[in-house]
Design a protein that fits this description.
The protein is an all-alpha fold. It is built from 5 helices and no strands. It has one domain. The chain is flat, with a radius of gyration of 15 Å.
Length: 135
């Protein structure tokens, strides 16, 4: 399985830029929803999720990605130019997804999730946080 979280974040950022340049917000919403749906399908098949787990993964991704998108849009509206602040927002929401998934997946699924990119992304987030905190 290919890990799609970072791909979706990059897609959200790209969509945000298009929207800022006069793109259609409905098209952006539709495209993001399609990416979320594809990610849910990928997790469901690769991790062999049960139906209740698919429901939770879908809910988690929809809530957290849309909250991330709203935060990025608000930052853009406020003309925040410091790219580190955008990364901090992305890391915050990706960490929430990570901890939520940990509660939903069983041990085998969690191990596979970590092997397919979850651990690498977590390590990168932790490294960025340590650097910001001067450690």
């Amino acid at each position: 399985m290919k890990h799609f979280g970072l791909t979706l974040i990059l897609f959200c950022a790209f969509s945000l830029m298009l929207c800022a340049q006069g793109g259609n917000p409905q098209d952006m919403e539709k495209a993001i929803q399609e990416k979320i749906d594809q990610e849910v399908e990928d997790y469901a098949s690769s991790l062999k999720l049960e139906s209740w787990q698919v429901f939770y993964v879908d809910s988690i991704l929809n809530h957290d990605y849309k909250a991330l998108q709203a935060e990025l849009i608000e930052m853009n509206r406020n003309k925040v130019s410091n790219s580190d602040l955008y990364v901090i927002a992305q890391d915050k929401w990706m960490e929430k997804i990570y901890t939520s998934f940990q509660r939903v997946f069983n041990d085998e699924q969690w191990a596979k999730y970590l092997k397919t990119g979850g651990a690498k992304e977590k390590k990168a987030r932790d490294k960025r946080a340590a650097k910001r905190n001067g450690k």
